[in-house]
Amino acid sequence: MYKRISFTLNGKKVNSEVDVRKSLLEVLRDMGLTGVKKGCGVGECGACTVLINEIPMDSCLYLAVWANGQEIRTIEGIAENGELSKVQKAFVEEGAIQCGFCTPGLVLTTTALAESGKNYNREELKRELSGHICRCTGYQKIVSAAEKAIAEEHECHCKEHHEE
Fold first, then answer.
1. Is 147 exposed, middle or buried (0-12, 13-18, 19+ CB in 10 A)?
2. Is residue 9 domain-shared with residue 62, that is, in the same domain?
3. Half-sphere exposure for 95 (CA within 13 Å, toward CB)
4. Are both 7 and 25 inside the same structural domain?
5. Taking the complete model, does pTM exceed 0.90, yes or no?
């Protein structure tokens, strides 16, 4: 059975007819969004993470029909005016990218953390990022990149408030 849904994807309104049995991961990949990775398929690895209403979610566990009326951001929608986002830059600068398979999910989760406005200590960041499996880095550089990105995001917001 198919159902017509409408949602916002990376800032653009999308209408799609989806098989009610398909996950959001499958539908996004069918749409050509290959930055959403299919890893474990059971919500353990974080490779398929997307932001749904700014909350990191495993798209392999999220039925596409549930996306109706929602706002979804994938790694393809993170760049700012054609430039890498602060989070993406921090991952590159800190060497937190190796094979890149886990990177989109980690960048999206870190983006949500940075945009939340909350401060996180290193242990809290480790806990927040714990839903992601990386086989290459050992996580230290990933956590350092997240710390850097969040600090830069907060610094940017502080400057905006002082200019007002």
1. middle
2. yes
3. 5
4. yes
5. yes
The answer on 157 and 100 residing in a single domain is: yes
Residues 6+ apart with CB under 8 A from 102: 37, 39, 45, 46, 47, 132, 133, 134, 135, 136
Q: Decide the pairing of beta strands 71-73 and 2-9.
A: parallel
Whether residue 153 sits in one domain with residue 101: yes
d(CA 127, CA 3): 37
| pLDDT for the residue numbered 2 | 97
**Token pair 């927040």: residue:** 128
Find the domain containing 141 and state its range: 86-163
If you search the block for the tokens 């190796």, which residue do you land on? 98
Mind listing the pLDDT tens digit for each residue in 108-147?
999 999 999 999 999 999 999 999 999 988 899 999 999 9
- Sorted by sequence, the CB contacts under 8 Å of residue 164 that are 6+ apart come out as none
Separation of alpha carbons 97 and 9, rounded Å: 25
Burial class of residue 151, CB neighbours in 10 A (0-12, 13-18, 19+):
middle
